[in-house]
Design brief:
The chain has 380 residues and is α+β, with helices and mostly antiparallel strands. It has helices spanning 2-17, 33-46, 57-62, 65-90, 135-146, 178-199, 234-244, 279-299, 302-307; strands spanning 49-55, 92-96, 99-103, 108-116, 122-130, 160-167, 206-216, 222-227, 258-268, 274-276, 314-316, 319-321.
Amino acid sequence: MALRYIAVIAAVALSVGCARNSTEAPAGGNNSIGQIDRYLEKAVGLSNEGVVLMPSDSMARETDRTRLNEIAQALRIPFAACFLRRTIEVARVASVGQGLGLEAVPQGQVRLRARLNAAGEVLRAELMETTIDDGPLVTCVQEAIAAQSFPSVRASTLRWVDVLYWVSLGYDRGRDSPERRRFHRREVAEASRAAKQCLEGRVRGGEYPLQGVSLVDREGSALINRIEPNDLPPPVNRCVAQVFRQIEAPPDPESFVRAVIADAVFSVALDGAVRFGDEEWLRLMDLEAAAIRRDSASVQRPAQEAAAPLGSSVTISGVGVSPAPERGIDPEVEGPRLEATPGAQPGAGTSRTTTDTPGDPAASGIRLKLGGRSSAAPED
């Protein structure tokens, strides 16, 4: 009975947390250890992350299964935060398929045993086994378990719960398709246009290649990001990081966390004027989108035209293209401005930035007001 109970706990936790098809628990009856192992192996293969609780036999008989299911779901949130923080700190950009992705991602499985007192408080979380080769991530998961409360049981009960957690980056479907490449190119170009104000009058003349790394959720919005080390001053890097955090990916309800790599090259003239590599391409895309909107409006009935929301998207080659909204950034960025210096080289008089974690945009004499996108309809 206890073995069947364990399987049901795992099934409920996965059916809520798994983005792919829900998995079912083993058939009713007393399931063997082998059956449960095969079930867990299948569950891990079907989802990018999940939590399974396996209480001791005596605790399973006394504990409400609904409460254990709730705990399994609640633990996914701090566990995911541990994974995101460590991934943005240690993962490296590398060639993956036809583009760029991440390697050295701290992913795998870990099983810990939570020893409890009669009140359900965790006395300690013991590491039983792990395939995650990242000590800080495992420690973070242990700390999250130690902070969790479990149901109280009788003092005579053998009180422990095994916590199985597995995690990996989600599969990014269609990442190398022409439509996706065009979508990503426009996202990076629009962010680069907004980020120009971070550099104007604050860096010396020359070229500044930048690379941003974002981890996005199923909706395509950034959860956490970083700017790779470069020759820009720290305040400028923080500004760029805040703007690049607006870069999105198309929604994918079957994914967990995806990596988005953004490359941009900024050219700063001796007079302080800033340009970026895809500036002319973005200007042409804006003109093309405006022309399509005009042609579409000319053939719509007046009632349809009146009902259309302002700023609605149009589609070019299967990719939703908004009317190129200006990404919100306060034009007044506090901090010292540089005088144009003939013959200046990139990074002259500045220290190389080595931190990966973007800081508070209000720190170090820089303040931004980052707004959201304009009220454009969601892109397809």
